[in-house]
């Protein structure tokens, strides 16, 4: 089996690359700009003390007081009160809140030093009981401590804009016949070389956009500028394409040896499993086998049994009652027997729910497909064109 030991098609690629991180090193940002950025993000750097709070609202003060008395007498818990109202805890959860968020109820809630219940207290929805579950201390990151983070962010943002402004110049150079070395000489881009195939993810190949372009490019593909997800750009030229080739044995000897051992082991286990399967078919009880037995019940077609071979569930639902079958995968073998088949009950709530969910999935897929086809038809009729450069510029401004 040479496939696991065959080097995939490999391309020798020269590229020119410019990332925001490359350019940001050259950009100076003054303190006035950093201070402005700090002020615009004050909510992130200066956070007041907060509480984790749940609120259960009642129609009247009398109802709220009666509920509080029941809690104080240990007749009921806060969770049980929520359930009595037909609510879930998620319905009464306010999350982490500040004093300002709680209005007139804030003083008593923030006076608690440990989790507890207070109320009845006012709320915009009526009298309520509040349960405080945790205290989140105030947090402030000073400008001095945030300066480096802000500087890097501001420099990267400016670098992205400068890179977009550089795109037309790079396109002109490529149109004039520039190679990757000339791009590196005339711009801030850096030249590189990579032996790329589908198994390479290092360096520039860490970018999805590069791998996609590399997979599609040939030696006759004209280089063009492409944008990376982080705001960088690259161009590339494919110098050579090396066809798939079997790696030398010395290079893959350990892998070949391991694969051979695994195959021989699996074959031996399969032979032994088939012998045991024949014994079971002849009437021997599975419990009499010197094996670790595992029993699973109520398995469904969309189910999963941990530690089994791929295709285990598919094989199971292909079997008939009392059938015995052997599966193998990755040096292991499974001996399985199907004891019972339970037909679905069309009237059960679970079956009805699955049927409704499947119908909804089909309807959503059909409606989505129709909408996509209609939208595509409109686009083709209108001959719409998107100015990608303008779109990139707008995105840069939004950042």
Question: What's the topology here?
Answer:
Elements (H helix, E strand, L loop, with lengths): L5 E2 L2 E9 L1 H5 L6 H10 L1 H4 E2 L2 E8 L3 H12 L5 H7 L4 H4 E5 L1 H4 L3 H6 L4 E6 L6 E9 L2 E2 L2 H33 L4 H7 L3 E7 L11 H9 L9 E2 L5 E10 L2 E2 L2 H33 L30 H5 L7 E6 L2 E6 L11 H34 L5 H11 L1
Describe the structure.
The chain is α+β, with helices and mostly antiparallel strands and 399 residues long. It has 4 domains: 3-30 and 146-245, Chitinase A, domain 3 (Roll); 49-137, Chitinase A, domain 3 (Roll), CATH 3.10.50.40; 265-337, no CATH class; 349-398, no CATH class. The chain is 46% helix and 19% strand. It is built from 15 helices and 14 strands. It has helices at residues 20-24, 31-40, 42-45, 61-72, 78-84, 89-92, 99-102, 106-111, 143-175, 180-186, 208-216, 249-281, 312-316, 349-382, 388-398; strands at residues 6-7, 10-18, 46-47, 50-57, 93-97, 116-121, 128-136, 139-140, 190-196, 226-227, 233-242, 245-246, 324-329, 332-337. The chain has a 4-stranded antiparallel β-sheet. Strands 5-4-7-6 form a 4-stranded antiparallel β-sheet. Strands 1-12 form a two-stranded antiparallel ribbon. Strand 10 (226-227) and strand 11 (233-242) form a beta hairpin. Helix 9 runs antiparallel to helix 15. The chain is flat, with a radius of gyration of 33 Å. The model has no long low-confidence stretch (mean pLDDT 84).
């Amino acid at each position: 089996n040479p496939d696991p030991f065959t080097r995939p098609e490999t391309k020798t690629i020269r590229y020119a690359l410019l990332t925001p991180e490359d350019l940001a090193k050259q950009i100076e940002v003054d303190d006035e700009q950093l201070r402005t950025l700090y002020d615009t993000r004050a909510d992130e750097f200066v956070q007041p003390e907060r509480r984790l709070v749940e609120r259960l609202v009642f129609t009247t003060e009398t109802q709220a007081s009666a509920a509080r008395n029941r809690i104080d007498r240990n007749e009921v818990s806060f969770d049980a009160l929520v359930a009595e109202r037909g609510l879930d805890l998620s319905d009464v959860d306010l999350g982490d809140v500040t004093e300002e968020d709680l209005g007139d109820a804030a003083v008593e809630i923030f006076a608690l030093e440990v989790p507890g219940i207070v109320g009845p207290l006012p709320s915009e929805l009526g009298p309520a009981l509040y349960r405080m579950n945790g205290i989140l201390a105030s947090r402030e990151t000073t400008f001095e401590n945030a300066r480096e983070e802000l500087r890097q962010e501001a420099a990267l943002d400016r670098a992205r804009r400068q890179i977009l402004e550089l795109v037309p110049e790079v396109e002109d150079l490529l149109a004039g016949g520039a190679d990757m070395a000339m791009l590196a000489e005339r711009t801030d881009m850096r030249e590189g070389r990579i032996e790329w195939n589908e198994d390479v993810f290092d360096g520039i190949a860490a970018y999805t956009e590069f791998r996609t372009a590399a997979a599609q490019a040939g030696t006759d593909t004209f280089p063009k500028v492409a944008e990376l997800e982080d705001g960088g750009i690259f161009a590339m030229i494919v110098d050579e394409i090396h066809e798939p080739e079997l790696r030398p044995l010395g290079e893959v000897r350990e892998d070949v040896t391991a694969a051979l051992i695994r195959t021989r082991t699996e074959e031996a286990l399969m032979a032994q499993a088939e012998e045991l399967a024949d014994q079971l078919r002849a009437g021997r009880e599975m419990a009499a086998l010197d094996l670790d037995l595992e029993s699973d019940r109520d398995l469904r077609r969309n189910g999963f049994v941990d530690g089994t071979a791929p295709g285990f569930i598919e094989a199971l639902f292909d079997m008939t009652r009392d059938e015995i079958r052997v599966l193998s995968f990755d040096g292991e073998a499974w001996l399985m027997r199907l004891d019972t088949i339970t037909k679905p009950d069309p009237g059960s709530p679970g079956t009805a729910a699955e049927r409704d969910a499947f119908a909804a999935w089909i309807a959503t897929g059909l409606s989505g497909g129709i909408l996509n086809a209609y939208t595509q038809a409109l686009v083709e009729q209108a001959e719409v064109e998107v100015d990608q450069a303008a779109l990139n510029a707008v995105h840069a401004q939004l950042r």
